Description:
By secondary structure, this protein is of the alpha/beta class. It has 2 domains: 5-120, 2,3-Dihydroxybiphenyl 1,2-Dioxygenase, domain 1 (Roll); 152-304, 2,3-Dihydroxybiphenyl 1,2-Dioxygenase, domain 1 (Roll), CATH 3.10.180.10. The protein contains 6 helices and 17 strands. It has helices at residues 18-28, 75-88, 161-171, 222-234, 287-291, 300-304, and strands spanning 5-15, 32-36, 42-45, 55-59, 64-72, 92-95, 106-110, 116-120, 150-158, 175-181, 187-193, 201-205, 211-218, 239-245, 251-257, 263-269, 280-283. A 9-stranded mixed β-sheet has the order 14-15-16-13-9-12-11-10-17. It has an 8-stranded mixed β-sheet with strand order 2-3-4-1-5-8-7-6, with helices on one face. Strand 14 (239-245) and strand 15 (251-257) form a beta hairpin. The longest helix has 14 residues, at 75-88. The relative contact order is 0.16. The mean pLDDT is 93.
Amino acid sequence: MKKGVMRPGHVQIRVLDMDEAVKHYKDLLGLIEMDRDDQGRVYLKAWTEVDKFSVVLREADEPGMDFMGFKCLSEEVVDQLRGELAAFGCEIEDVPEDELKDCGRRVRFIAPTGHSFEIYATKKQTGKWGVGNHNPEAWPRGLEGMKATRFDHCLLYGPNLDETLNLFRDVLGFDLAEQVMAPDGKRVSQFLTVSTKAHDIAFIHHEEPGKFHHASFFLETWQDVLKAADLLSMTDTSIDIGPTRHGLTHGQTIYFFDPSGNRNEVFAGGDYHYPDHEPVTWDAEELGKAIFYHDRVLNERFMTVLT
């Protein structure tokens, strides 16, 4: 049952060198810098997004993800879910308005995987960059690099997948769209959606809590993914794998690393999900094909390099 969570809203990523990171996310991924704050954080967005920002970069001593936020329909929904999160047993922190620039109050909670998430309802809207919302053109001029169209999802590694599924499904209203099952019946991977997308957040079982695998950005076509691969080689950017296709979600994809070692994905296509769809299930022995449909084997780096 939907609870009023609309979509992924933002992710705050730790980077080691802000100048290098901004160059990567602006010039290569094609995000637009929207603001900076007195903490030195940099706020970026993709061009189709109506809110002011979706990616926040924070300079730190080690890379990784600080938190991921989901936008809700209203402040009343945030209040309702805050109570349900507390009843579920989550550790909760109330983050005041404008702690993130031009963002309303947020309710932060720790999932059983050890990751920090937050819900909020209010953020300044600046409209689709370069085209606006009245008689808009097809796309804006002046975009750089891969021309990412939106921040799409994160993949996270941690323990306690069953409890995390219960939290996202029963409290926040997500659906289980796809899963990978081990022979003993244990779920080792889960792809959760609160929209019609293949996934808005995904988790893979990992004994160490709170690990960040990647942040993903949507491109329009397979040709755009191939062009992204060209740009990665043109800039000597470290590539993890691709271009290829996923079995899970069937997206067309390429993975690469930012200068701090955080993994990014850009992808096109992918399945859709409605609430009456049964979860798609992959067997763990088919995990190679599930993740890399063409190669049908996993590269060690994809499974072990985390931040």
